[in-house]
# Entry
Amino acid sequence: MIQKPRGTMDILPDEVGVWQYIEKKAREVAAKYGYSEIRFPTFESTELFARGVGDTTDVVQKEMYTFTDREDRSYTLRPEGTACVVRSLIENGKCSDTMPLKLYYIINCFRYEKPQAGRSREFFQFGTEMFGAAAPQADATVIALADTFIREIGIKDVKLHINSIGCPNCRPKYHEALVKYFSDNSDKLCDTCKERLKTNPLRILDCKCPECKAIASDAPKTIDNLCVECQTHFDGLKLVLDNSGIEYEIDPHIVRGLDYYTRTVFEFICDSIGAQSTICGGGRYDGLMKQLGGPELPGIGFAMGITRLILAMKASGVDIGADDAPSVYIAPMGTAATVRAFELVEKFREAGIYAETDLVSRSLKAQMKYADKKSARYTVIIGDSELESGKAQLKDMRNSTQSEIELDKIVEHVLAAIKE
# Structure
């Protein structure tokens, strides 16, 4: 038997309702904040991620799905969305549009990681990006959008963690402090972090190895090494969040996993879903646009893993209800009744009412069992006598009451009853 690749998932019809609910809410909340949807290719030039994400990151070094096409060009399945959006804006000449540009996307991404609860090799994200706004109010707006969305889908016990990782002006000083600290403890670092010490010591702070995490807990903190401009920006963000009533915790251990982040970084943490507790991660990336060949244009955004959102919703006891049940099921008996039933369900559908009828030649008893299993609100049985009289019994399955209705007026009757 052929099976799906490890780390991927089938989202079956009885599961897809919660996905559609999350996507619908994402679009609604994004629209309230003035965001427009953007779509972009599933695979891009490998160079985009090497330059944008950072060639010293785990994503580029270990996790990308990269292939060569027939003309020996290297492409990669997108491991994230931000670099793709930046490339699209530059290529399509959107960087001169009215600022700020506010965009969102709902995409699948691909990383070769060890599959576990809340982490897979093909994963799905709701992400947002804002370009052209450098003020801390922009950071607060992005955080507020994420906070609003999380609350609207019913997730509870979520904590916002924020940090500032500085800018190219203050990063060198901090880099020196990290190198000195970790060099003194290099014998206790994992092999990967020993290499990171040479290439990107900031990434050691993000290591999941217990020994490295213990060492990193006492490492110099970014917020103690900020330049005046970065400190002012971070103070401004805290002031806006305080005045908006958005609670947060300063977490100096947040650095994010991608190289393009500067200044503000943040995560929304839901401890009730286990080890993979980060349901949203984001931050500012003011140098990414120029790094990829565009103008100097500040940016900030976030991404949320939909699988983790679903886990958090379940942990919070969120019940979005079952998939839509047919409002009407018409059970025909005989060839003529089957033809009339098909005509009626099409009229119901044209009126915006979910309706079904028999398609597999079930007996009447089996049809009624099917209607009950599908939780139909109304059922109608049509046979020769109903066709002759032009009337049928409409049964309300909620209270088992029946009423005789003219077949020609049954759509109007049900439509009125549903609206009551």
